[in-house]
Specification:
This protein is an alpha+beta fold. Helix content is about 25%, strand content about 25%. This is AAA family ATPase.
Amino acid sequence: MRLTSFSAAGYRSLRSIRLDLGQVSVFVGENGVGKSNLYRALQLIKASAEGTLAREIAGEGGMGSALWSGKRRTGQPVRVIIDAHFVDDETAAGYAYKVEIGLPPPVSAGFAFEPHVKEETLTVEAGRRPVEMMTRKGPVVFARDGDGRRVEHPERVLNSETALALLGGSGRYPEVGDLRAAVAGWRFYHGFRTDADSLVRRPALATTAPMLDEDGANLAAVFATLRHIREDTVDLDRCIGDALGGAQLDVPVPGETATFGLVLPEFPQRVFRPQELSDGQIRFLALAGALMSYRLPRLIALNEPEASLHVRMLPSLADMIARAAERTQVWVVTHSRELADLVHDRTGARALTVIRVEGATMIEGMRSTGLMPDDD
């Protein structure tokens, strides 16, 4: 289930923007232009699949902070609108999911500033025309069951819930469930803590870890899985050695917990444990765990992965992004034009430059309608 396009309107600095996406998407720009808002808007699709959309918006300041604060057309609904299109590479079917979030009405059973999911739709195009698989207005949801019949879901949806999460987890609506499962598996890595108490520096429970958690807490288990279960760390060792001056990753056989360390060329008889490593070293290792794990999610999103990294580490980071893109989609938001160029050299993905025009986040060359010239 591959993401092919994405649009957002009315969200923070995103007045209206639409993006076509390939296997690798790179967005580069200065501070304050709204790159992180693009990343966050994409993350809201995953929140819809997980049923945490209202909580995510409330956590970033509520609808007052989430809504576009610039000029609007008269009579236009005050809403955040997220729209995503997918293709199932196995069946070639196209999926389109749209969700609209707004403010509660003056008289409401919910909380005064709680985000309300107003409308949701899911359509699938596998033949001559799209077929509506799910539609929601307010608390009422209609969907097509396993026999293709359009039925009303017996349970009313709360204002803070998404129908994608509720119906997708019920087992009664196959297409809704397929999309929910695909999107809920995405991973967003927007900065690993590197302080002394950070999770990435701690031992992890010795359980098989096919992919890295979003907070990096199972990093040691990810490395142990690669070293002792998959028994293949050739690419991982090469990237770490190139980035960290010939350092070697040490991963002992786990006991109750998994651990790791680095052996540095100048001190070959000693293993430096995570607590002794620099912020840049531990951050690079966390990115390696995210991009080179045993199994990758269907989409990996990285927000400013170059932070705290020495410039000499960027070629290896670009190598890992390119290798990951052979197995999954990768979305990168970065300040670094050098990293963007390195990724382009390895993948052919042209970086899109994010700018701010009259308060709105845009892509350089994008029309005022939010479309790129090729879309015309």
